[in-house]
Amino acid sequence: MSVRVRIAPSPTGNLHMGTARTAVFNWLFARRHGGRFLVRIEDTDRERSQPAFTDSILTGLRWLGLDWDEEPVFQSRRSRDHQEAIAALLANGRAYRCYATEAELNAMREARQAAHQAPRYDNRHRNLSPERIAAFHKEGRHAVVRFRIDDTQDILWQDMVRGPMRWQGADLGGDMVIARRAPADRIGDPLYNLAVVVDDIAMGITHVIRGEDHIANTAKQLLLYNALGAPPPCFAHTPLILNKEGRKLSKRDGVTSIADFQALGYTAAAVSNYMCLLGWSPPVELGERFGLADAAPVFGFDRVNKAGGRFDWDKLNWLNSQALHAMDGATLRNALLPRWQQAGLDTSQPLAWQEQLAALLGPSLVVLQDGVEQARPFLGPPELDDASRAQLQIEACQAALHYILQHRPRTFNAAAAKELLTAAARAAGVRKGVVMKGVRAALLGCLHGPDLLLSWDLLHGVGEDDPRLRAVLR
RNA sequence: GCCCCCAUCGUCUAGAGGCCUAGGACACCUCCCUUUCACGGAGGCGGCAGGGGUUCGAAUCCCCUUGGGGGUACCA
């Protein structure tokens, strides 16, 4: 039987880190076993679902390189299947209509809480007499559909991450609602657990890989598989991604959507690499910097951790800077260009020149966005910061700059610039460092940055060096 | 509250009873490279939550405690 897995996000927000990591594990598992990776959009919550989020999710997956093998399935379009399944369960007695009112349910919950017990439905309408049902109908009461859960039942499964798992029927909160409230002669909208199982069966899902926050759902879903007469898939419950405080990472934690990371200038390679590292430890031969394609052949749940992992910006930043440093000038320039343009910088220079600039800046970038501020003084007039102004106040510095402008060699290059600096320092009677700082201040407006000689040469290439040096002369 | 899960440096982790004087990576610190910053290179700091067992021997197995997390919907 060939492997079929799926990622099943609900379009109630952008593609989130947690969802993306689950998608990565699913994708890796599918590729490892030559199976298929599918996407199902769980848009049955009409209140909160938005088409724009579906786009965001699909775009995010694509950006990460998680290509899917069949057209995405939209859960909302599968309601007939859901209805039929519910009707079948109703027909064979595994499910029944419950007419309990909200007030009744609340009373139950409060009573249980007062008794220090877990809230649960007491199955009061499980075996209603025909007379009472008739009475409820006459009353015009609406009903939900509940699925019978035998309290004495032990639910067992072999989890690919956690090993043997066991859940007691009694801890599931009573007979579970599988269809929303509706007039008693109809079947309401299907609820999560029912829809998931029906769809996973229809899609032929063989392995369900999801976060550990779904463990209780798995117990319920296993019961549904049984009642629907379908063999259950294998389950893998992966550790959660935790925030700085050690809680489940949520949208409330600031930057958590894949689109955010992309906007900040993280590369897809670094992000997917990092997600692999959070919870999965690659075999030593792989090292810890690798692409999804490298990880796929060796991926397995035997090396997936059980404990949740905290999201660590430092590690992601390191991975991203490594990815950026490894780029050649041409690649980096292409990655930077849209950001330069968006920042309104002049990008009319020759392509080769821009590539040289990118190569010069490369080693100091952590995220692509860093390349905007750092390129700014090269792509437009420099704005002198305080330290630069102070440097240019120094008498000897001014003298050296005068010397430099007067002794410009006919053919300028980095080597010539170096000699010029030495000569200027000697003429002005100061250490070369003082002159270098002054030149840097004049050319770029700040005292720190990439190699001065290369920077100077680059500015010379677009005729920007002399004017800038002159501009700071008193 | 109740149910379930988890527990190695600050963080991510290696470790399947002797290979452990607990290894790696990030972060941090020092030095080198560099008359700047960064990159790069070399070192360093730092951990098996606690207590009981089992065993000749335990980070590894069992129990308890503690701590942390998840779940407890007519959301997904």
From TrEMBL:
The gene is gltX. A motif ('HIGH' region) lies at residues 9-19. ATP binds at K251. GO terms for molecular function: ATP binding; glutamate-tRNA ligase activity; tRNA binding; zinc ion binding. CDD domains: GluRS_core. This is Glutamate--tRNA ligase. It holds the Pfam family tRNA-synt_1c. Monomer. Its EC number is 6.1.1.17. Residues 351-459 form the Aminoacyl-tRNA synthetase class I anticodon-binding domain. SUPFAM superfamilies: An anticodon-binding domain of class I aminoacyl-tRNA synthetases, Nucleotidylyl transferase. One of its GO terms (biological process) is glutamyl-tRNA aminoacylation. It comes from Candidatus Synechococcus spongiarum LMB bulk15M. It catalyses: tRNA(Glu) + L-glutamate + ATP = L-glutamyl-tRNA(Glu) + AMP + diphosphate. It comes from the Bacteria. Keywords: Aminoacyl-tRNA synthetase, ATP-binding, Cytoplasm, Ligase, Nucleotide-binding, Protein biosynthesis. The keyword Aminoacyl-tRNA synthetase applies. It is found in: Cytoplasm. Belongs to the class-I aminoacyl-tRNA synthetase family. Glutamate--tRNA ligase type 1 subfamily. Residues 3-318 form the Glutamyl/glutaminyl-tRNA synthetase class Ib catalytic domain.
